[in-house]
Specification:
The protein is an alpha/beta fold. The chain folds into 2 domains: about 170 residues, 3-Layer(aba) Sandwich (Rossmann fold); about 180 residues, Glycogen Phosphorylase B (Rossmann fold, 3-Layer(aba) Sandwich), CATH 3.40.50. The protein is built from 16 helices and 13 strands. The strands form 2 sheets. A 7-stranded parallel beta sheet has the order 3-2-1-4-5-6-7. Strands 10-9-8-11-12-13 form a 6-stranded parallel beta sheet, sandwiched between helices. The termini are far apart. About 0% of the residues have low confidence.
């Protein structure tokens, strides 16, 4: 924590100095506020990683369809964006870490859309020349399950359900933050997945298939249960597919390599590392995961049951610690499937069979959709409507301010002329 604080203070000094140099540069060449406004990028979309491409693609497609000039900034050199052939949208790889923050902290744009929390908390600072920062959720989860103050410095939000709005308003009131603009638009990326699923060919009959998709870190399934969970899955006689989180291959490389070496018979265990998880999710019957957004993708889009883990979550550093109410995620999970824990991991076959065959979980999935997936099929259109409405408001406000400044300037000149006796 001390290192983070010191590093954050150092970053503030560095970026503030750079911003001061930039302001001096503008002044030296006569570039006052009007010139800055002239050079503004209308809309910037920032993606901190290529794994959020699914969140932004439907929005970019909608912006392209409306001929809206947009700049896409990404921290992934191999972002799928660069395979697209947009006419009105340009993209740029801005590097990682401080190099990326240097670019972001000096942006000159009307609107910035992102799914990255902690704006103006750590290294990513609000640029003085950005008029509006809009946050969009990358999963149907709680607004409080981010690091503390993670959403405090955004100006507007695109949400998927009313419970998120309630949570944001609660935090605003507790922290004395003026109410920000909120629009409930749904989930554009889920709309795309559902359309893709409806357009796909029907699957042929297959043996019962289980996919294990753990996240990484000390709360992940592998960290908690190790190879015990794989052994128990193999003992069910069902087909087993394991899809580790991409971060595991770097942060938990030794553990993953050890497991892959131990379970190396493809007839027993299939290891999946596809960039796109659509097909592997489509051809399975049940998902086992931990505290991950893929649980909702799988249950709400593919309409299949899940088995989840939830123990070991520390709420103290999260915004959830401020609200004396159980999170929506924890309340809804039992409606979608069963919890995996130390007591029942040895009987995992019973858990799998019950989740697949119990009709109450299908009812639970429908309930979850009604609470977190508003305006199904309209997410991209509604999101872009909101973004462009914000942009138009900002342009109108700037135009009014410039007219007012011009009128004041003329009045000052007239006053100076009269005072000089002319």
């Amino acid at each position: 924590m001390l290192f983070t604080i010191l590093f954050g203070l150092f970053s503030v000094v560095v970026f503030s100095f750079r911003a001061l140099l930039m302001k001096m540069k503008y002044r030296s060449i006569g570039g006052e506020k009007a010139k800055i406004n002239e050079q503004k990028i209308p809309l910037v979309i920032f993606a901190e990683d290529k794994r959020y491409w699914n969140v932004f693609k439907p929005i970019l497609d909608e912006l392209e369809a409306r001929s809206q000039k947009t700049v896409y900034l990404t921290c992934s050199e191999d972002d799928p964006f660069f395979d697209k052939d947009y006419r009105f949208i340009t993209g740029e790889f801005i590097g990682n870490g401080n190099k990326a923050f240097s670019r972001l902290n000096l942006l000159n744009a009307s609107v910035v859309l992102s799914t990255t929390p902690s704006l103006d908390v750590f290294q990513w600072k609000r640029s003085a020349n950005v008029d509006c920062y809009i946050y969009i959720f990358h999963a149907p989860n709680d607004a409080t399950l981010y690091r503390m103050f993670g959403l405090d410095h955004y100006d507007a939000f695109i949400l998927s359900g009313e419970y998120q709005e309630k949570q944001i308003r609660q935090l605003e009131e507790m922290r004395g933050i003026s109410p920000r603009d909120i629009e409930i638009c749904g989930l554009p990326y889920m709309d795309n997945m559902l359309k893709r699923l409806n357009d796909a060919e029907e699957l042929s009959a297959h043996e019962r298939t289980v996919i294990l998709a753990p996240t990484w870190g000390f709360n992940g399934i592998f960290s908690r249960y190790g190879d015990k969970v794989i052994d128990n899955l193999i003992s069910t006689g069902y087909k087993v597919i394991i899809r580790p989180h991409p971060q595991s291959f770097s942060s938990e490389k030794e553990m993953i390599e050890k497991l892959m070496a131990k379970y190396n018979d493809p007839d027993v265990v299939e290891w999946n590392r596809d960039n796109d998880n659509f097909e592997v999710l489509r051809r399975t019957d049940i998902l086992i995961s931990d505290y991950s957004g893929v649980l909702f993708d799988y249950s709400l889009v593919f309409n299949k049951p899940v088995i989840y883990t939830k123990a070991g979550i520390d709420y103290s550093p999260l915004d959830a610690a401020w609200i004396d109410e159980e999170s929506w995620t924890l309340k809804i999970l039992p409606s979608l499937g069963l919890e995996l824990n130390e007591e029942n991991i040895g009987d995992i076959k019973t858990l799998i069979d019950r989740c697949i065959e119990d009709p109450s979980f299908a009812e639970g999935r429908q309930r979850a959709r009604s609470e977190t997936w508003f305006h199904m099929g309209e997410g991209a259109k509604r999101s872009v409507d909101f973004i462009l409405r914000k942009y138009d408001e900002l342009v109108a406000r700037r135009t009014e301010e410039e007219k007012r400044a011009e009128a004041e300037s003329k009045d000052k000149k007239k006053f100076a002329l009269k005072k000089g006796g002319f």
